Amino acid sequence: MSTDLAELPQAAPTAAITLRLLPPAVSADYARWDAFVQSCPEATFFHRAGWKTIIDKVYGHRTWFYYAERNGEIVGVLPLAEVKSRLFGHFLGSLPFCVVGGIAAVDDQARALLDAEAERLARELGVGHLEHRYETSAHPGDPSWHTKELYVTFRKEISADDEENMNAIPRKQRAMVRKGIKCELRGELDQDVDRFFTAYATSVHRLGTPVFPKKYFKVIKEVFGDECEIRIIVRGDELIAGVMSFYWRDEVLPYYGGSLPAARECAGNDFMYWNLMQAAAAKGCRSFDFGRSKLGTGAFDFKKNWGFSPTHLGYEYKLIKATALPDNNPLNPKYQLFIKMWKRLPLPVANFLGPFIVRSLG
Protein backbone atom coordinates (compact mmCIF):
# COMPACT_ATOMS: atom_id res chain seq x y z
CA MET A 1 0.00 0.00 0.00
CA SER A 2 1.39 3.38 -0.93
CA THR A 3 1.70 6.23 1.56
CA ASP A 4 0.90 9.83 0.67
CA LEU A 5 3.96 12.02 1.08
CA ALA A 6 1.88 14.49 3.04
CA GLU A 7 1.38 11.83 5.71
CA LEU A 8 5.11 11.41 6.34
CA PRO A 9 6.62 13.32 9.29
CA GLN A 10 8.28 16.49 8.05
CA ALA A 11 11.59 17.82 9.43
CA ALA A 12 11.14 20.98 11.43
CA PRO A 13 12.55 24.05 9.69
CA THR A 14 15.88 25.22 11.02
CA ALA A 15 15.33 28.11 13.41
CA ALA A 16 16.66 31.43 12.23
CA ILE A 17 19.80 32.89 13.76
CA THR A 18 19.63 36.35 15.27
CA LEU A 19 22.63 38.62 15.79
CA ARG A 20 22.66 40.70 18.95
CA LEU A 21 25.05 43.03 20.76
CA LEU A 22 26.12 43.03 24.39
CA PRO A 23 24.75 46.17 26.05
CA PRO A 24 27.13 48.84 27.40
CA ALA A 25 26.46 47.95 31.04
CA VAL A 26 27.08 44.56 32.58
CA SER A 27 23.89 42.50 32.52
CA ALA A 28 22.67 38.90 32.54
CA ASP A 29 23.74 38.69 28.90
CA TYR A 30 27.39 38.96 30.00
CA ALA A 31 26.99 35.82 32.10
CA ARG A 32 25.30 34.01 29.20
CA TRP A 33 28.13 35.10 26.90
CA ASP A 34 30.78 33.83 29.32
CA ALA A 35 28.95 30.53 29.82
CA PHE A 36 29.07 29.97 26.07
CA VAL A 37 32.74 30.95 25.89
CA GLN A 38 33.57 28.51 28.68
CA SER A 39 31.92 25.65 26.81
CA CYS A 40 32.94 26.49 23.22
CA PRO A 41 36.10 24.60 22.15
CA GLU A 42 37.21 27.46 19.87
CA ALA A 43 36.85 30.15 22.52
CA THR A 44 39.71 31.49 24.64
CA PHE A 45 40.18 33.66 27.70
CA PHE A 46 40.31 36.62 25.30
CA HIS A 47 36.74 36.01 24.21
CA ARG A 48 35.49 36.79 27.73
CA ALA A 49 32.89 39.54 27.99
CA GLY A 50 35.08 41.31 30.54
CA TRP A 51 37.33 42.60 27.75
CA LYS A 52 34.49 44.85 26.64
CA THR A 53 34.43 46.47 30.08
CA ILE A 54 38.22 46.81 30.10
CA ILE A 55 38.51 48.39 26.64
CA ASP A 56 35.53 50.69 27.23
CA LYS A 57 36.63 51.81 30.68
CA VAL A 58 40.37 52.23 30.11
CA TYR A 59 40.70 53.33 26.49
CA GLY A 60 37.25 54.53 25.45
CA HIS A 61 37.42 52.72 22.11
CA ARG A 62 34.08 51.81 20.55
CA THR A 63 33.28 48.11 20.92
CA TRP A 64 30.80 45.76 19.29
CA PHE A 65 30.50 42.41 21.06
CA TYR A 66 28.24 40.41 18.74
CA TYR A 67 26.60 37.15 19.69
CA ALA A 68 24.49 34.85 17.52
CA GLU A 69 21.41 33.13 18.93
CA ARG A 70 19.38 30.18 17.70
CA ASN A 71 16.28 29.16 19.67
CA GLY A 72 17.39 31.46 22.48
CA GLU A 73 20.79 29.79 22.80
CA ILE A 74 24.10 31.49 22.01
CA VAL A 75 25.86 29.63 19.20
CA GLY A 76 28.63 32.07 18.31
CA VAL A 77 30.42 35.21 19.49
CA LEU A 78 32.64 37.86 17.94
CA PRO A 79 34.17 40.66 20.06
CA LEU A 80 35.23 43.70 18.02
CA ALA A 81 36.81 47.06 18.85
CA GLU A 82 37.65 50.06 16.69
CA VAL A 83 41.02 51.79 17.05
CA LYS A 84 41.52 55.10 15.27
CA SER A 85 44.85 56.91 15.31
CA ARG A 86 46.63 59.49 13.15
CA LEU A 87 49.93 57.79 13.95
CA PHE A 88 49.03 54.12 13.58
CA GLY A 89 45.96 54.02 11.39
CA HIS A 90 42.32 53.07 11.67
CA PHE A 91 41.21 49.46 12.10
CA LEU A 92 38.48 47.21 13.43
CA GLY A 93 39.83 44.15 15.20
CA SER A 94 39.10 41.08 17.25
CA LEU A 95 40.57 41.82 19.56
CA PRO A 96 42.90 44.76 20.34
CA PHE A 97 45.06 44.29 23.48
CA CYS A 98 44.51 40.51 23.23
CA VAL A 99 46.63 37.72 21.80
CA VAL A 100 43.72 36.11 20.00
CA GLY A 101 40.08 36.77 19.17
CA GLY A 102 38.07 36.23 16.04
CA ILE A 103 34.87 34.24 15.76
CA ALA A 104 34.19 31.44 18.22
CA ALA A 105 31.16 29.39 17.20
CA VAL A 106 29.52 25.97 17.30
CA ASP A 107 27.32 26.66 14.27
CA ASP A 108 28.54 27.22 10.70
CA GLN A 109 25.65 29.52 9.82
CA ALA A 110 26.39 31.66 12.87
CA ARG A 111 30.04 31.81 11.86
CA ALA A 112 29.13 33.01 8.35
CA LEU A 113 26.72 35.65 9.67
CA LEU A 114 29.25 36.99 12.18
CA ASP A 115 31.93 37.05 9.47
CA ALA A 116 29.69 39.02 7.12
CA GLU A 117 28.63 41.42 9.87
CA ALA A 118 32.24 42.22 10.78
CA GLU A 119 33.01 43.13 7.18
CA ARG A 120 29.82 45.16 6.86
CA LEU A 121 30.70 47.13 10.00
CA ALA A 122 34.31 47.64 8.86
CA ARG A 123 33.08 49.14 5.57
CA GLU A 124 30.50 51.29 7.34
CA LEU A 125 33.22 52.68 9.66
CA GLY A 126 35.60 53.23 6.75
CA VAL A 127 38.53 51.53 8.47
CA GLY A 128 41.83 50.81 6.78
CA HIS A 129 41.60 47.11 7.59
CA LEU A 130 39.67 44.44 9.46
CA GLU A 131 41.80 42.18 11.65
CA HIS A 132 41.04 38.83 13.27
CA ARG A 133 43.59 37.32 15.66
CA TYR A 134 43.03 33.59 15.38
CA GLU A 135 45.23 30.85 16.75
CA THR A 136 44.80 29.09 13.41
CA SER A 137 43.79 30.80 10.18
CA ALA A 138 40.02 30.70 9.67
CA HIS A 139 40.05 31.56 5.94
CA PRO A 140 42.80 29.42 4.40
CA GLY A 141 42.97 29.85 0.64
CA ASP A 142 40.68 32.90 0.62
CA PRO A 143 42.56 35.60 -1.35
CA SER A 144 40.52 38.40 0.26
CA TRP A 145 42.18 37.62 3.61
CA HIS A 146 45.90 38.24 4.08
CA THR A 147 48.14 36.72 6.74
CA LYS A 148 51.44 37.68 8.37
CA GLU A 149 53.77 35.21 10.05
CA LEU A 150 55.11 37.68 12.60
CA TYR A 151 53.72 36.30 15.85
CA VAL A 152 54.05 32.89 17.45
CA THR A 153 52.76 31.39 20.65
CA PHE A 154 54.45 28.94 22.99
CA ARG A 155 52.45 26.28 24.80
CA LYS A 156 53.53 23.15 26.61
CA GLU A 157 51.98 20.51 28.83
CA ILE A 158 53.08 20.46 32.46
CA SER A 159 52.91 17.75 35.09
CA ALA A 160 51.63 17.72 38.65
CA ASP A 161 55.16 16.72 39.68
CA ASP A 162 57.71 19.53 40.21
CA GLU A 163 60.69 17.30 39.58
CA GLU A 164 59.27 16.15 36.27
CA ASN A 165 58.65 19.75 35.22
CA MET A 166 62.16 20.77 36.28
CA ASN A 167 63.74 17.91 34.34
CA ALA A 168 61.76 18.91 31.24
CA ILE A 169 63.57 22.27 31.18
CA PRO A 170 66.76 22.18 29.04
CA ARG A 171 69.97 21.97 31.07
CA LYS A 172 71.25 25.53 30.60
CA GLN A 173 67.88 27.05 31.41
CA ARG A 174 67.47 24.71 34.36
CA ALA A 175 70.76 26.04 35.75
CA MET A 176 69.32 29.57 35.65
CA VAL A 177 66.26 28.47 37.59
CA ARG A 178 68.47 26.82 40.21
CA LYS A 179 70.50 30.02 40.44
CA GLY A 180 67.34 31.90 41.40
CA ILE A 181 66.57 29.25 44.01
CA LYS A 182 70.11 29.56 45.46
CA CYS A 183 69.65 33.34 45.64
CA GLU A 184 66.71 32.64 47.97
CA LEU A 185 64.14 34.28 45.74
CA ARG A 186 60.54 33.67 46.63
CA GLY A 187 57.13 34.36 45.14
CA GLU A 188 54.33 36.34 46.75
CA LEU A 189 50.80 37.15 45.63
CA ASP A 190 49.47 40.71 45.53
CA GLN A 191 45.88 41.88 45.24
CA ASP A 192 46.90 45.33 44.00
CA VAL A 193 49.06 46.19 41.01
CA ASP A 194 51.56 48.63 42.54
CA ARG A 195 54.64 46.43 42.89
CA PHE A 196 53.88 44.59 39.65
CA PHE A 197 53.57 47.89 37.78
CA THR A 198 56.94 49.09 39.07
CA ALA A 199 58.63 45.95 37.71
CA TYR A 200 56.68 46.00 34.45
CA ALA A 201 57.14 49.71 33.70
CA THR A 202 60.87 49.56 34.45
CA SER A 203 61.27 46.58 32.16
CA VAL A 204 59.42 47.93 29.11
CA HIS A 205 61.20 51.27 29.44
CA ARG A 206 64.49 49.38 29.27
CA LEU A 207 63.27 47.87 25.98
CA GLY A 208 62.22 51.23 24.57
CA THR A 209 58.53 50.31 24.56
CA PRO A 210 55.70 52.63 25.72
CA VAL A 211 54.02 51.48 28.91
CA PHE A 212 50.37 50.62 29.42
CA PRO A 213 48.65 52.78 32.05
CA LYS A 214 48.48 51.48 35.60
CA LYS A 215 44.69 51.85 35.37
CA TYR A 216 44.65 49.15 32.68
CA PHE A 217 46.08 46.56 35.04
CA LYS A 218 43.84 47.68 37.91
CA VAL A 219 40.74 47.22 35.79
CA ILE A 220 41.90 43.82 34.49
CA LYS A 221 42.31 42.65 38.08
CA GLU A 222 38.92 44.09 39.08
CA VAL A 223 37.14 42.47 36.15
CA PHE A 224 38.68 38.99 36.31
CA GLY A 225 39.27 38.66 40.04
CA ASP A 226 40.87 35.36 41.02
CA GLU A 227 41.26 34.35 37.38
CA CYS A 228 43.89 37.08 37.19
CA GLU A 229 46.90 36.49 39.45
CA ILE A 230 49.62 38.99 40.33
CA ARG A 231 52.80 37.20 41.37
CA ILE A 232 55.73 39.16 42.78
CA ILE A 233 59.29 37.86 43.10
CA VAL A 234 61.35 39.23 45.98
CA ARG A 235 64.75 38.72 47.59
CA GLY A 236 64.21 39.50 51.22
CA ASP A 237 62.22 42.73 51.02
CA GLU A 238 63.69 43.73 47.65
CA LEU A 239 61.39 43.75 44.63
CA ILE A 240 62.91 41.71 41.79
CA ALA A 241 60.17 40.96 39.25
CA GLY A 242 56.44 40.60 38.73
CA VAL A 243 54.01 38.85 36.40
CA MET A 244 50.27 39.12 35.75
CA SER A 245 48.81 35.77 34.69
CA PHE A 246 45.41 34.47 33.62
CA TYR A 247 43.95 31.11 34.60
CA TRP A 248 41.67 29.54 32.00
CA ARG A 249 40.29 26.01 32.09
CA ASP A 250 43.37 23.88 32.89
CA GLU A 251 45.88 26.43 31.58
CA VAL A 252 47.92 29.27 33.01
CA LEU A 253 48.92 32.19 30.80
CA PRO A 254 51.57 34.65 32.04
CA TYR A 255 50.48 37.72 30.09
CA TYR A 256 52.40 40.76 31.33
CA GLY A 257 55.70 40.63 33.15
CA GLY A 258 58.75 42.66 33.99
CA SER A 259 61.75 42.94 36.24
CA LEU A 260 64.15 45.39 37.81
CA PRO A 261 67.85 45.48 36.86
CA ALA A 262 68.69 43.42 39.97
CA ALA A 263 66.96 40.44 38.34
CA ARG A 264 69.93 39.90 36.05
CA GLU A 265 72.30 38.99 38.86
CA CYS A 266 69.92 36.50 40.50
CA ALA A 267 68.08 35.03 37.49
CA GLY A 268 64.89 36.76 38.62
CA ASN A 269 62.94 36.27 35.39
CA ASP A 270 63.89 32.62 35.16
CA PHE A 271 62.86 31.94 38.74
CA MET A 272 59.61 33.89 38.28
CA TYR A 273 58.31 31.62 35.53
CA TRP A 274 59.42 28.51 37.38
CA ASN A 275 57.67 29.74 40.53
CA LEU A 276 54.51 30.38 38.49
CA MET A 277 54.74 26.93 36.88
CA GLN A 278 55.00 25.31 40.32
CA ALA A 279 51.99 27.21 41.64
CA ALA A 280 49.90 26.55 38.52
CA ALA A 281 50.69 22.82 38.57
CA ALA A 282 49.66 22.68 42.23
CA LYS A 283 46.32 24.27 41.28
CA GLY A 284 45.71 21.55 38.70
CA CYS A 285 46.84 23.34 35.54
CA ARG A 286 48.22 20.98 32.92
CA SER A 287 49.15 23.50 30.26
CA PHE A 288 51.56 26.43 30.43
CA ASP A 289 50.97 29.06 27.73
CA PHE A 290 54.03 31.30 27.50
CA GLY A 291 52.08 33.71 25.33
CA ARG A 292 52.77 35.66 22.17
CA SER A 293 56.18 36.73 20.95
CA LYS A 294 57.49 38.26 17.76
CA LEU A 295 59.94 36.33 15.64
CA GLY A 296 63.51 37.59 16.00
CA THR A 297 63.11 39.04 19.51
CA GLY A 298 64.75 38.32 22.84
CA ALA A 299 61.42 37.13 24.25
CA PHE A 300 61.19 34.56 21.45
CA ASP A 301 64.67 33.23 22.26
CA PHE A 302 63.99 33.17 26.00
CA LYS A 303 60.90 31.01 25.58
CA LYS A 304 62.63 28.61 23.20
CA ASN A 305 65.36 28.18 25.81
CA TRP A 306 62.72 26.70 28.10
CA GLY A 307 62.12 23.90 25.64
CA PHE A 308 58.87 25.35 24.28
CA SER A 309 58.21 25.04 20.55
CA PRO A 310 56.76 28.04 18.69
CA THR A 311 53.47 27.82 16.80
CA HIS A 312 52.58 30.51 14.30
CA LEU A 313 49.44 32.47 15.11
CA GLY A 314 46.89 32.77 12.30
CA TYR A 315 46.39 36.53 12.23
CA GLU A 316 44.23 37.58 9.28
CA TYR A 317 43.70 40.97 7.66
CA LYS A 318 41.12 42.14 5.16
CA LEU A 319 42.05 45.43 3.50
CA ILE A 320 39.12 47.85 3.39
CA LYS A 321 40.56 51.28 2.57
CA ALA A 322 44.21 50.46 3.13
CA THR A 323 46.41 49.28 0.26
CA ALA A 324 49.04 47.51 2.38
CA LEU A 325 49.13 45.38 5.52
CA PRO A 326 49.79 47.18 8.82
CA ASP A 327 53.32 47.10 10.20
CA ASN A 328 53.06 48.70 13.62
CA ASN A 329 55.65 46.77 15.57
CA PRO A 330 59.06 47.53 17.11
CA LEU A 331 60.88 45.48 14.46
CA ASN A 332 59.84 47.95 11.77
CA PRO A 333 63.03 49.94 10.92
CA LYS A 334 61.13 53.24 10.90
CA TYR A 335 60.58 52.94 14.67
CA GLN A 336 64.22 52.30 15.62
CA LEU A 337 65.06 55.97 16.24
CA PHE A 338 61.92 56.36 18.34
CA ILE A 339 62.91 53.32 20.45
CA LYS A 340 66.40 54.70 21.07
CA MET A 341 64.97 58.07 22.11
CA TRP A 342 62.35 56.44 24.33
CA LYS A 343 64.98 54.53 26.29
CA ARG A 344 66.63 57.85 27.18
CA LEU A 345 63.50 59.39 28.64
CA PRO A 346 63.32 59.57 32.44
CA LEU A 347 61.08 56.77 33.68
CA PRO A 348 58.40 59.09 35.13
CA VAL A 349 58.15 60.90 31.79
CA ALA A 350 57.92 57.63 29.88
CA ASN A 351 55.23 56.39 32.27
CA PHE A 352 53.25 59.59 31.70
CA LEU A 353 53.51 59.62 27.91
CA GLY A 354 53.35 55.89 27.22
CA PRO A 355 49.59 55.39 27.77
CA PHE A 356 48.76 58.04 25.15
CA ILE A 357 50.68 55.99 22.57
CA VAL A 358 49.72 52.40 23.42
CA ARG A 359 45.99 53.12 23.40
CA SER A 360 46.30 53.50 19.63
CA LEU A 361 48.35 50.35 19.05
CA GLY A 362 45.96 47.72 20.33
From TrEMBL:
Origin superkingdom: Bacteria
Residue ranges of every copy of the BioF2-like acetyltransferase domain listed in the record: 171-304
Any matching Pfam family: Acetyltransf_6
PANTHER family assigned to the protein according to its UniProt record, in alphabetical order: LIPID II:GLYCINE GLYCYLTRANSFERASE
Protein name in the entry: FemAB family PEP-CTERM system-associated protein
